[in-house]
Amino acid sequence: MTMNGDMLIGFSSVRGTEGEQRAFNPASNSEIADPVFGMGGSAEVERAASLAAAAFDSWRNAPLAQRAVFLEAIAENILALGDELIERAQAETGLPAQRLQGERARTVGQLRLFGKVVRDGHFLAATIDHAQPAREPLPRADLRVAKVPLGPVAVFGASNFPLAFSVAGGDTASALAAGAPVIVKAHSAHLGTSKLVGSAIQKAVKDQGLPEGTFSLLFGAGRKLGEALVSHPAIKAVGFTGSRQGGLALMRLANTRPEPIPVYAEMSSINPVFLFPHALANRAEAIGKAFADSLTMGAGQFCTNPGLVLAVDGPDLDRFVEAAGAALASKPAQTMLTPGIFDAYCSGKQSTGAVAGVTKVAEGEPAGERPNAAQAALYVTDAARLLASPELEAEMFGPASVVIRARDFGELLEVVEHLEGQLTVTLQIDAADVADAKRLLPTLERKAGRILANGFPTGVEVCHAMVHGGPYPSTSNAMFTSVGATAIDRFLRPVCYQDLPDNLLPDALRAANPLAVWRLVDGAPVSPV
Ligand code: NAP
User: Fold this and answer.
1) Where residue 84 falls among pLDDT bands split at 50, 70, 90?
2) pLDDT value at position 2?
3) Residue 343: CB partners within 8 Å, gap ≥ 6?
4) What pLDDT, on a 0 to 100 scale, did the predictor assign at position 418?
5) Which of 156, 270, 351 is the best mutation target for the ligand 1 pocket, counting ligand atoms within 8 Å of the beta carbon and taking the most?
6) What is the pLDDT of residue 459?
7) b (16+ CB within 10 A) / e for 129-149
8) Is 493's pLDDT higher than 90?
9) Mean pLDDT calculated for residue range 400-422
10) Using only C-alpha atoms, what is the Rg of the chain?
11) Is 231 in the pocket of ligand 1 (CB under 6 A)?
12) Torsion over CA of 392, 396, 400 and 401, rounded to 10 degrees?
């Protein structure tokens, strides 16, 4: 496919006139010559948002089977891009081809999962309470509730997953599945990848005969276009993955609109790993080695990277630190996504290393002459230092982590209580640790969206039971997940219908159940067959 640098607004190719930008190759530290992307501004936001608003009623009322076929068609079109997509993403992100192939499979799988979710119809949460005309002292009306989409959704793709959390990623797939039109603001770190995937979605919209405004892709330099998008009255919700600073800025903007809207922002998390005494005594070396593998995977550029390790001090913790350090020492430096992310990683390490009482105990292989290549690092300090130094809780986005030595279990509990909200917490436990783990669990449930045992948090399965979310600041809204089937709930709201005649009700609530969905009828689940 010959790619140009125009935006995709509905079915049109639109050249932005608010400046030009080329994509950047972080591995060679140089611009990619072709194409030159034209940046958009508020005029393009207006055009895309008007189209999305016009498409909304028609798209949300499209048959569920058509919605599912559309999501599956996007998946097919992405696969049809073949090696061109992988090569472009590799050039723009520095991520290895194998990782990107895996991410493409995940993206395609995610779209297909939402196809299934739409066909099942569970997400509509159809619920019927029949009228009770003879009820005393007052009769009850016929009450029925089902979910409807909020309206057009703005999506800000993530830099660290150029496919699975970007143009056709989880936010877009779940919003489209909900029946919402989507406008994506492409991440400036992978403009060409965004354009390729955006074209795959545009083709599916055209091929399926869907309304033009179902999908648009915009490019914007600086903050202007993103701000105009979040401020536009036609936009009813925002999906974002990125920095805490960026997420908070968009939340503030959304809250000061004449009509405030929800921003589902996934921001920063340091994903504490707890090493319990018996697990450490039995397998400190194995845990240390596996930890180093998890920390350095993908140059540590995962929102679930294990950035903090906590344990009661002692010789077994020393064994862990030694093993993790030895494993890290042979880890090669890896290219990071952008020079900005590399600089932020370096200054994060510098700030951590500068805290009095923090010792750097291990480093990965140096980068040598390679530009933007992250050298892994492991730091150690004590619990009192962590409690007194908020900067040690800041996310170092990259392959660096801090080990915290607690005096005793009581001090460990104090640290846990002090921690900010997290996407994940991990317990390394053996059978004899279960009683201690049980003491920690109630606090951990208040702090994190996912609690895992004897694994590592990197690797987020896309399935029905996944939660990729958590209390602030890991996300802006702990009630939802941005990965997995229930991510669709972020873009839906319930509408209750009281005493409406059958032919005015949405299909999910009609007497004959024409969609054949599971329903809760008078308090009992009823299967469609
Ligand atoms: P980012 O700077 O927050 O950018 C994410 C997206 O939001 C980009 O499209 C960006 O536009 C846009 N944006 C950011 N602030 C905005 C604002 N105030 N108004 C309008 N649009 C705004 O994140 P990033 O570039 O991906 O990475 C920077 C840092 O974020 C990393 O160093 C890391 O600390 C953190 N990060 C965290 C996660 C996570 O999952 N927790 C993931 C990725 C990054 P542009 O494209 O024009 O910049």
Assistant:
1) very high
2) 83
3) none
4) 96
5) 156
6) 87
7) beeeeeeeeeeeebebbbbbb
8) yes
9) 97
10) 25
11) no
12) 30
Q: pTM for this one?
A: 0.97
Confidence of residue 292 (pLDDT cuts 50, 70, 90): very high
Q: Please tell me the total number of residues recorded for the chain in this structure.
A: 529
Catalytic residue among 44, 212, 266, 411: 266
Task: Read off the amino acid at residue 481.
Answer: T
* DSSP secondary structure code for residue 132 in this structure: B
Q: Which residues contact 108 (CB under 8 A, 6 or more apart)?
A: 75, 78, 79
* Mean pLDDT calculated for residue range 506-510: 97
Report phi then psi at 304, rounded to 5: -105, 20
Q: Are 40 and 8 in contact (CB under 8 A)?
A: no
Q: How far is it, in rounded angstroms, from Cα 211 to Cα 10?
A: 9
Half-sphere exposure of 420 (CA within 13 A, CB side): 21
Measure the CA–CA gap between 462 and 439, rounded to whole angstroms.
30
Q: Which residues of 491-527 are buried (b: 16+ CB within 10 A; e: fewer)?
A: bbeeeebeeeeeeebbbbbbeebebebbbeeeeeeee
Known catalytic residue at 266: yes
For residue 17, the SS3 value is coil
User: Residue 121: left (phi > 0), alpha (psi -120 to 50), or beta?
Assistant: left
Does 208 have pLDDT greater than 90? Answer: yes
458 lines ligand 1 (CB under 6 A): no
pLDDT at 154 over 90: yes
> DSSP for 312-325?
E-SHHHHHHHHHHH
Secondary structure of 323-382 in HEC code, one letter for each residue: HHHHHHHCCCCEECCCHHHHHHHHHHHHHHHHCCCCEEEEECCCCCCCCCEECCEEEEEE
The rounded distance, in Å, linking the Cα atoms of 350 and 360 is 10
Set out the domains of the chain in order of their start, with CATH numbers.
40-133+141-267+480-490 (3.40.605.10), 272-453 (3.40.309.10)
| Catalytic residue status for 303 | yes
Backbone angles phi, psi at 74, to 5 degrees: -60, -45
37, 159, 166, 235: residue to mutate for ligand 1 pocket, most atoms within 8 A of CB: 159
Ligand 1 pocket residue status of 246, Cβ below 6 Å: yes
CA atoms 143, 147, 148, 150: torsion sign: positive
Angle at 495 between CA 489 and CA 496, to 5 degrees: 135
Reported as a pLDDT band with limits 50, 70 and 90, residue 222 is confident
What's the whole-number mean pLDDT along residues 450-462?
Answer: 95
Burial letters 265-278, b for 16+ CB under 10 A, else e? bbbbbbbbbbbbbb
